[in-house]
């Protein structure tokens, strides 16, 4: 019997142990499946319901229809939190990706001890959204912090970076940019996939470093760039820990670091307005969904798939 | 190359989007457990290290006398305390005994989260000074038992005054102009090493006093905002005046201090000569600075201490969760905290002067210098007190964060005093329910 024929007979026959196999498969899936239903989908459905209610955490929720959503239209602090969040996303994500790409390209050129550098640069990504780093950030950018001490050496008078409303958000942008490690590692993997023959051919034709980067590396890397972009935008929209810890939970000074998520938290747990907070959560979901959809739509025009 | 990123993108999308709206899981679990007659109570409080040590001592002593009761202390800084309490109450996992503040008392009690202590078995309020029960009492029930009396005051670090070569003023006659002048003088004479005073407006008590000196008050008895835009504007203008005279630190330093813990605050670390505190905090600040500090009356507009609007406040309250499974044991422990001299001997006046007159008499001779000074201050101002200050209505708990924000706006020059005053009042009104 030919190999092809054997495959055909295998396909046609229903294996006796399939049911059993399925059960085992579901059992293996169970921990994740349970988690999905109990701590993701369950609370999501609950929060969708709560978003149409007035719920103060202690007493039973009261149905109020769309009131929470119409309230958002006139909530100035919510509008401010949107401004803060958008600024954060649209400043920090491009900067972060640019640095990640630059370093990936440099590391990909075969720097000695690359594994070491890769680990070192990746480290901030692991730590970036942790409370410990946010506390460290407070120290670094505080009035008597490390940054000011360094500036002092050069005779520049520092300031309270975190306590000044005009610079506080900037420190959080820097923190996010600093976590360039995870997109960098993904870029590195992408760079590895680009066939070296393109570069060789281009070199023979006399293309310089920049030309090779813009004509070969960048176009072939666009799928990876797209992936990183989508991921980091979603991630940045959801940032919470950094702003919460750096501002001491207040989103201050003067609401200048009041991210949407932080305001949501403030309404829910500070003001006992969980119905409104739930409505805000769903609004954020819509915002993220819209941006992601727009990203996918735009990708048709700039992402290049090499096959 | 083509397939991997797409698959990854889809997967990442699925997980992150799902996580977006499902904020916060349910911790579940019971609040306390009993087995074989043994009862575990959870007891939560905010405060400095000093308070935590003293409170733990009392818990240890109580457990020794009551081998069947275990008390688990849960404590933290003021700023994180309320978020944590709200989450645990929402999760039906509230601690049995809660250290409560006036700002949040109605917030929790009106929603049925707190037990009416009048119905609590084994809790006696017979020896309490009558006036001190009122603040925790409304709608015919007692939802918070006064844990100590305090009053808003100016704390002075005499060592800083000495360094600056400035005399500590007479607080029975000083005005807001004197305050500003003296504070500015200290900043100048120490070359900026020590700043004269901490800012007003980092909590709502300053504004309340300011309003009371001008015939208004932050809250009215019927639960409304009682301060006018004009007086609030004046208040912000005065803060600007302090800033411009360098009587208070820079806007950045003040904004940073708003989030600092007591032990790390500017006054505790010796950077300020004066600050505004609650009188019972004198104990913690004395420990933190290692100095013998002094309390002064709040300045007045006309130089008469009797017109400075001061009042006795319940520094904090003991409340019992309505959902506690061990009402009796919790009430007995609160009774011990409030009425036993054994507890009083340890706690002294760290939470304010004991409202139980017997405990107060018993502990007075044992007071450490700082406790004694704060107790004496409370005694001294008794003849100059104004009317009691109405408790904040539901939603009023937010006022501290709101005034901090507008004080920051004003100090950084981002909003003019009159605009900030109007926006502040609009926002506070909007929070009331």
From TrEMBL, chain A:
GO cellular component: plasma membrane
Family note: Belongs to the binding-protein-dependent transport system permease family.
PANTHER family hit by this protein: ABC TRANSPORTER PERMEASE PROTEIN, ABC TRANSPORTER PERMEASE PROTEIN YESP-RELATED
Record protein name field: Sugar ABC transporter permease
Species name: Kribbella sindirgiensis
SUPFAM superfamilies hit by this protein: MalF N-terminal region-like, MetI-like
Subcellular location: Cell membrane
Membrane topology note: Multi-pass membrane protein
Automatic annotation (TrEMBL), chain B:
Keywords: Signal
Stored InterPro entries: Bact_solute-bd_prot1, SBP
Signal peptide segment: 1-22
Matches recorded under PANTHER family: ABC TRANSPORTER SUBSTRATE-BINDING PROTEIN YESO-RELATED (PTHR43649:SF11), ARABINOSE-BINDING PROTEIN-RELATED (PTHR43649)
Record-given protein name: Sugar ABC transporter substrate-binding protein
Source organism phylogeny: Bacteria, Bacillati, Actinomycetota, Actinomycetes, Propionibacteriales
């Amino acid at each position: 019997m030919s190999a092809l024929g054997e495959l055909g007979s295998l396909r046609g026959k229903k294996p006796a142990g399939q049911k059993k196999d399925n059960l085992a498969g579901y059992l293996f899936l169970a921990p994740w499946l349970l988690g999905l239903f109990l701590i993701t989908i369950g609370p999501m459905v609950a929060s969708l319901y709560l978003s149409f209610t007035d719920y103060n955490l202690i007493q039973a929720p009261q149905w109020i229809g769309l009131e929470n959503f119409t309230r958002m239209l006139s909530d100035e602090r919510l509008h401010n939190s949107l401004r803060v969040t958008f600024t954060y996303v649209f400043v920090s994500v491009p900067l972060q990706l640019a640095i990640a790409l630059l370093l990936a390209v440099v590391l990909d050129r075969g720097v000695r001890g690359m594994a070491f550098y890769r680990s070192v640069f990746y480290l901030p990504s692991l730590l970036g959204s942790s409370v410990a780093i946010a506390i460290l950030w407070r120290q670094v950018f505080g009035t008597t912090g490390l940054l000011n001490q360094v500036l002092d050496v050069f005779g520049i008078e520092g300031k309270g970076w975190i306590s000044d409303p005009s610079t506080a958000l900037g420190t959080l942008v820097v923190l996010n940019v600093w976590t360039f490690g995870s997109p960098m590692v993904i870029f590195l993997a992408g760079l590895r996939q680009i066939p070296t023959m393109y570069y060789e051919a281009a070199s023979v034709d006399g293309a310089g470093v920049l030309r090779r980067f813009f004509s070969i590396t960048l176009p072939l890397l666009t799928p990876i760039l797209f992936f990183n972009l989508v991921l980091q935008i979603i991630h940045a929209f959801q940032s919470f820990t950094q702003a919460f810890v750096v501002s001491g939970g207040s989103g201050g000074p003067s609401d200048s670091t009041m991210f949407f998520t932080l305001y949501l938290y403030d309404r829910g747990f500070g003001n006992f307005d969980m119905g409104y907070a739930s409505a805000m959560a769903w609004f954020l979901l819509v915002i993220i969904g819209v941006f992601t959809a727009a990203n996918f739509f735009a990708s048709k025009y700039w992402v290049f798939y090499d096959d | 190359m083509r397939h991997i990123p797409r698959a990854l993108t889809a997967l990442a999308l699925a997980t992150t989007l799902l996580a977006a709206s499902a904020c916060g899981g349910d911790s579940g679990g019971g609040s306390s457990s009993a087995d074989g007659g043994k009862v575990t109570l959870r007891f939560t409080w905010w405060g400095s290290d000093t308070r935590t040590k003293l409170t733990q001592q009392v818990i240890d002593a109580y457990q020794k006398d009551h081998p069947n009761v275990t008390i688990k202390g849960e404590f933290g800084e003021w700023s994180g305390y309320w978020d944590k309490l709200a989450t645990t109450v929402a999760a039906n996992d509230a601690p049995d005994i809660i250290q409560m503040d006036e700002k949040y008392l109605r917030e929790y009690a009106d929603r049925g989260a707190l037990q009416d202590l009048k119905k609590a078995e084994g809790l006696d309020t017979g020896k309490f000074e009558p006036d001190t029960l009122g603040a925790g009492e409304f709608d015919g029930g007692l939802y918070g038992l006064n844990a100590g009396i305090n009053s808003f005051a100016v704390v002075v670090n005499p060592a800083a005054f000495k360094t600056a070569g400035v005399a500590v003023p007479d607080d029975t006659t000083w005005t807001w102009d004197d305050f500003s002048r003296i504070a500015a003088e200290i900043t100048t004479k120490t070359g900026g090493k020590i700043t004269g005073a901490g800012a007003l407006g980092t909590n709502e008590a300053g504004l309340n006093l300011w309003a009371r000196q001008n015939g208004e008050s932050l809250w009215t008895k019927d639960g409304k905002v009682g301060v006018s835009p004009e007086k609030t504007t004046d208040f912000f203008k005065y803060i600007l005046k302090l800033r411009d005279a360098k009587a208070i630190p820079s806007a950045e330093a003040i904004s940073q201090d708003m989030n600092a813990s007591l032990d790390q605050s500017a006054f505790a670390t010796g950077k300020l000569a004066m600050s505004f505190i609650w009188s019972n905090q004198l104990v913690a600040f004395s420990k933190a600075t290692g100095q013998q500090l002094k309390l002064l009356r709040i300045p007045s507009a006309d130089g008469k201490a009797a017109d400075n609007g001061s009042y006795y406040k319940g520094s904090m309250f003991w409340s019992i969760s309505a959902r506690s499974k061990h009402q009796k044991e919790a009430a007995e422990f609160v009774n011990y905290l409030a009425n036993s001299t054994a507890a009083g001997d340890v706690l002294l006046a760290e939470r304010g002067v004991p409202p139980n007159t017997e405990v107060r008499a018993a502990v007075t001779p044992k007071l450490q210098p700082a406790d004694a000074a704060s107790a004496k201050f409370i005694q001294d101002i008794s003849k100059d007190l104004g009317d009691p200050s109405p408790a904040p209505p539901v939603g009023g708990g937010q006022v501290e964060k709101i005034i901090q924000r507008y004080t920051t706006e004003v100090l950084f020059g981002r909003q003019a005093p009159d605009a900030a005053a109007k926006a502040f009042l609009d926002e506070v009104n909007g929070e009331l329910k």
